[in-house]
From TrEMBL:
Residues 18-165, 185-313 form the Allantoicase domain. It catalyses: allantoate + H2O = (S)-ureidoglycolate + urea. This is Probable allantoicase. Its EC number is 3.5.3.4. One of its GO terms (molecular function) is allantoicase activity. It is an enzyme of class 3 (hydrolase). InterPro entries: Allantoicase, Allantoicase_dom, Galactose-bd-like_sf.
Length: 331
């Protein structure tokens, strides 16, 4: 069975985008922080520590009294949650029998004890061992934290919280914005190929640590080329384009171009087809005065890229739209 379409959206809770597990009532057998590790869970049999078999996940002790165990995750990218994955990989006889997921939104950087107003986004659902459980979420609201409850105890390898980032406009400087950043609300809306890596990686915070943290396509055997289309954080004028091929050496594109458009208007060249070097951060000034809401990166003919940055200024209309979306999803 294939994974739901929403699993292609960014994982708002991943440590790779700044997520973290800020509280858990118990983590006796395995640390809570493993829940948001970007890498898929791993297992090596007969690997024992002083508390027993070592697991790549969060595992609590066996309860001898009524109650449940819980962990709170701060989303690295606050936003609208479209779906949750509760992964019990490698936990077989020691997984919870069920789980519930709640969410809330809080301004600033609250202590876990200050969080309230929790709303159930995944009602209590049964869990099986050593499998991924997919739960669609329909709450149209911006959240900053989620709480995972294990009924009554046991081990969960990963918690994935997929959705659409919604930035706080108070934290944006209109004249200096990465219009293509996930954390600012940009998102991938089209892609020719993502055989080796998701195009969403292009928009992730920070620099890629390894090749696997970028976007990479299969080898083309025709006369075409690969591309990604991005809906920008808001309407803006691009002043600088960064095309980063870091870690891509024998598989970097030979050339690339960037075009932009406003709504359904025609495409304009922001960066004409330009030669690229392997394993290099390329930075190019853009001197196109037109405001755009979408950008398309074309690579020729195929290959991989670590990051795409489009730095520029939000227009008044772009900032107003961002503020309206934040307000509508926070009330």
């Amino acid at each position: 069975m294939s994974a739901p379409e929403w699993t292609r959206l960014p994982d708002l809770a991943s440590r790779g985008v700044g997520g973290g597990v800020v509280w858990a009532n118990d983590e006796f057998f395995a640390e809570r922080e493993n829940l948001v590790n970007r890498a898929e869970p791993a297992f090596q049999s007969y690997t024992f520590g002083h508390k027993g078999q070592v697991y790549d996940g969060w595992e609590t002790r066996r309860r001898r009294e009524p109650g449940d165990d819980a962990a709170i995750v701060r989303l690295g990218l606050p936003g609208v949650v479209r779906g949750v994955v509760v992964d019990t990989a490698f936990f077989t006889g020691n997984h919870p029998v069920a789980a519930t997921v709640e969410a809330t939104s809080a301004p600033g950087h609250p202590d876990p004890s200050e969080l309230d107003g929790w709303r159930v986004i995944v009602p209590r659902a049964p869990l099986g061992g050593d499998r991924k459980h997919h739960f669609a979420v329909t709450a149209e609201r911006r959240f900053t934290h989620v709480r995972l409850t294990a009924h009554p105890d046991g081990g969960i390898a990963r918690l994935r919280v997929h959705g659409d980032p919604v930035p706080d406009p108070e934290l944006l400087v209109p004249g200096a914005v990465d219009l293509a950043a996930l954390e600012n609300g940009a998102r991938v809306v089209g892609c020719s190929d993502m055989f080796y890596g998701s195009p969403t990686n292009l928009l992730a915070p920070g620099q890629a640590a390894v090749m696997g943290e970028g976007w990479e396509t299969a080898r083309r055997r025709d006369d075409g080329n690969d591309w990604v289309e991005v809906e920008l954080a808001g309407q803006g004028v691009v002043a600088l384009a960064e095309l980063d091929t870091s870690h891509f050496k024998g598989n970097a594109p030979g050339w690339a171009s960037v075009r932009g458009r406003d709504g359904d208007g025609g495409w304009v060249d922001l960066l004409p087809r330009t030669r690229l070097q392997p394993d290099t951060r390329h930075r190019f000034r853009v001197r196109v005065p037109e405001a755009v809401t979408r950008a398309r990166l074309d690579i020729f003919p195929d290959g991989g890229m670590a990051r795409l940055r489009l730095l520029g200024a939000l227009t008044d209309a772009g900032l107003t739209a961002l503020a309206r979306r934040f307000r509508d999803l926070s009330s």
